[in-house]
Amino acid sequence: MSAPVLLIAGGSRSIGGAIARMAGERGYDVAVNYVTNRDAAESVAEHVRAQGRKAAVIQADMSKEEDVPRMFAQCDAAFGRLDAFVYNAGGFGGPPSNFIDVSTQTLRHSMNLNLLCAHFAAAEAIRRMSTRSGGQGGNIVFIGSRAAENGSPGFGVWYAAYKNGLHILSTALSKEVAEDGIRVNTVSPGPIHTDSNDPTRWPERVNTIPLRRFGKPEEVAEAALFLASPAASFITGTVINVSGGR
């Protein structure tokens, strides 16, 4: 029996890299998507291969609609199946700012990255997984953000709005595709120690976290892979917060 295949959009670094590495350790073949940092994606792929699993590296920009079907086609060519899809692509789309100063370019880029292309990518995954279309079922996991509930006033209100839309997309879509054998869930991280979110830059943020520390990318990966696993077979339409109580 062939290994299950996991495709991760935004899988070369930080949370995405942790999910991809852990997936390889847990028996998945992994397709690692990246935008510009091929070396980072190759490093993740090498870790997966070191576990005795297969890995493919796929360049595609999840802010561009036309790149989404190409990413899935390359995953098809590498593995010929898809069992789990994680949408980890996201970002502010531009520099942080207050509400009235954000540029239209930033708004559009962030909307494409956080919400629109998440929709297009989920549709591609469903076409491959749906039992009503000849697939074997599967799992979709979105990586959201606690900003969807807490907002990012003075910093990125638009980002919070798009992530809130992603959470709603996830819970609503889970009901639509349940009879297709597909589960859809979201992991909503709070402050996680990543390359772009170093606690030493904002030491005061620790005071807003009940557990008094930033999370680790691996802690988000644990939640994502749990939701994609048979252990979560009766869980769909759920948002799991990985936020230290924030």
Overview of this protein structure:
With 246 residues, this protein is α/β, with parallel strands linked by helices. Helices cover 40% and strands 15% of the residues. The protein contains seven helices and seven strands; from the N terminus they run E-H-E-H-E-H-E-H-E-H-H-E-H-E.
Draw up the topology in text:
Elements: E1 5-9, H1 14-25, E2 29-34, H2 38-50, E3 55-59, H3 67-79, E4 84-87, H4 104-129, E5 138-143, H5 147-150, H6 157-176, E6 182-189, H7 217-227, E7 239-242
Parallel strand pairs: 1-2, 1-4, 2-3, 4-5, 5-6, 6-7
Helix pairs in contact: 1-2, 1-7, 4-6
List key phrases describing it:
246 residues, alpha/beta, Rossmann fold, 7-stranded parallel beta sheet
Compute the gyration radius: what is it? 17 Å
Helix content: 40-55%
The share of residues in extended strands comes to 15-25%
Shape: globular
Counting DSSP E segments of at least 2 residues, the number of strands comes to 7
Task: Just name the CATH architecture.
Answer: 3-Layer(aba) Sandwich
Here the CATH topology equals Rossmann fold
Please provide the ordered H/E string of secondary-structure elements. Answer: EHEHEHEHEHHEHE
CATH classification class: Alpha Beta
Would you identify the regions where 5 or more consecutive residues have pLDDT less than 50? none
Could you name the CATH homologous superfamily?
Answer: NAD(P)-binding Rossmann-like Domain
Class per helix and strand makeup? alpha/beta
The number of distinct helices, counting runs of at least 4 residues, comes to 7
Largest beta-sheet details: 7 strands, parallel
Give the strand order of the largest sheet, numbering strands 1, 2, ... along the chain: 3-2-1-4-5-6-7
Distance between the termini: 42 Å
